[in-house]
Each structure stands twice: as C-alpha cells, then as structure tokens.
Design a protein that fits this description.
Layout lengths: L8 E4 L3 E6 L10 H7 L3 E6 L16 H15 L4 E6 L1 H12 L4 E7 L8 H17 L1 H8 L6 H6 L1 H11 L4 H12 L5 H4 L6 E6 L7 H4 L7 E6 L6 H4 L1 H15 L3
Parallel strand pairs: 2-3, 2-4, 4-5, 5-6, 6-7
Antiparallel strand pairs: 1-3
C-alpha cells in the first residue's frame, strides 16, 4: 500500500454531510456548480485527490484502493460518520472502494457518470497509450484531446465556456497525478458486487449523451436500495452541463436516506 496523502479540501454549508470526489484530471472546482446548489442546505466537503488540484503528487504505482484510503483517512481525521459520498467518474471508482472497505461510515453513496466495471482490454490499452502521451508530449496536449469527448455534442456546439473551464482545470493536474491515475484506473478491480450490498443506499446517475461511460455500464444493479437517475441531455459532465439536475438527484437521495 502506498503511503497515505493528506488531501486538500473545501468545506461549506450546514446540514447533512456530503463529500464529493472529482474525476480524472479534475479538482475541487469540478464540483463548484453542484456545491453552490447543495451548500445552502448541506454540509459539503469537496476533496482534491493525490496529484490533482492542491493535493501533492506521489510517484505512480498507487492504486484506486490507495486513493480511497486517502479519503478514509480524511473522514477519520474530521470525525465524520453517517455521511454521503458521491464520486464523479474516477471519483466513483474511489467511492466504490470506500464503500467496500469502510461501509460503516456511510449513510449512502453515489456514482455520477461512473461504473463498477473494470476497464476493458481496449480501455487498458488506451490508458497505457495515455501514459506514453503524457510522458512524451506533456499534460496540455493530452487534456486538449481529452476534454471535447467528455461533453455532449450539443454542449460542444453551444457552450465553449464549459470546454475552456474543463481544459483550464485539467492542465493544472500534475503530470505524476495524470500518469498515476491512468495506471490506477487501468488496474482497478471489478466492484459490481459492492453495488449489490443492500445495506447501503446507492445512487446511480447516468447521462443520456455520455460516450465515456454509457448508461448500460452505470445501471448495473437493481433493488430497493438502488436509485437510478438518467439525465437525458447530459454527456459525461452533468456536473457542468446539467448541474441543477445532478444537484436535485443528490439532494433528493440524501433527503430520502438521511439517518438523522
């Protein structure tokens, strides 16, 4: 296990505790629009994962589990319990690992444009190619090619502001953070069994226009403990493209499953 890293964070609001974990080449500001909508009625923590945002980078070779243990160490340090954790994309992989190993701290959790499935063989090759690209060409070009595919076609055509924001956030990612995350995602396990644990409520949010993680890879569990929400107009970035809908899905889920 890699040494744990102290995570940078932002805290706002009062109410039920909600912890938000960003995706690959993101940082706290990935959640800014959702955070703004939740914080008037919720106690919100937004984290930076290792090598992203203001959190230090460590040498590649760590796993999704190591990143989840960073989050658990933060939860322990803050003395948090009965909290709701929501992860976007890569953040969902981290959230699932947290739910598998530390279910007792959770009142519920959610995957936002994320999946419990591991990478396909093709996806693993693409991750490895991404590592090579970052080493050879740097983060800027990598992010420039990454970002347009994250949003819906309509967003690409009508909202260049979102594209620019995603690019500006992405290029701030430490190269070691990009490479480390690519390797961690490539090597992650199949955690579909975690979703089937009906002791913990689960929210699954999919975008109807998401080409990165389509809804059939998100809606992989059913049951009374699972809430499935499809945002038809969203791509992979509903947190930017449709923040009202994502925030409503999270707030409704938290309100339904609050233990207080």
């Amino acid at each position: 296990m890699a040494n744990q890293v102290k995570l940078a964070y932002r805290e706002s609001g009062k109410g039920e505790t909600v912890l938000l974990i960003h995706g690959f080449c993101g940082n706290k500001d990935y959640w800014k629009e959702v955070e703004t909508r939740l914080s008037p009625s919720h106690h919100v923590f937004v984290l930076d994962m290792r090598g992203h945002g203001e959190t230090e980078a460590t040498d590649p070779g760590y796993s999704i589990h190591d990143m989840a243990e960073d989050v658990f160490a933060f939860i322990e340090e803050k003395g948090l319990r009965n909290l709701f954790v929501f992860g976007h994309s890569m953040g969902g992989y981290i959230t699932l690992d947290l739910a598998r190993n530390h279910p007792d701290v959770l009142a519920g959790y959610g995957l936002i444009h994320s999946t419990a499935y591991p990478d396909s063989e093709e996806a693993k090759k693409n991750r490895s190619a991404g590592v090579s690209k970052v080493i050879e060409q740097g983060v800027n070009l990598f992010v420039k090619e990454l970002v347009p595919n994250l949003v819906s076609e309509q967003t690409r055509e009508s909202n260049q502001g979102i594209i620019r924001k995603l690019f500006d956030i992405g290029i701030e990612t430490n190269p070691k953070g990009v490479i480390g995350a690519l390797k961690a995602m490539r090597n992650r396990e199949d955690l579909t069994s975690v979703l089937l644990d009906d002791r913990i409520p689960v929210l699954l949010v999919a975008g109807g226009q998401d080409k990165v993680v389509p809804q059939e890879k998100i809606f992989t569990a059913n049951g009374a403990h699972v809430t499935q929400t499809l945002i038809e107009e969203a791509g992979h970035m509903g947190i930017f493209e449709t923040p009202d809908e994502v925030s409503h899905a999270i707030a409704s889920f938290v309100g339904e499953h609050s233990k207080k």
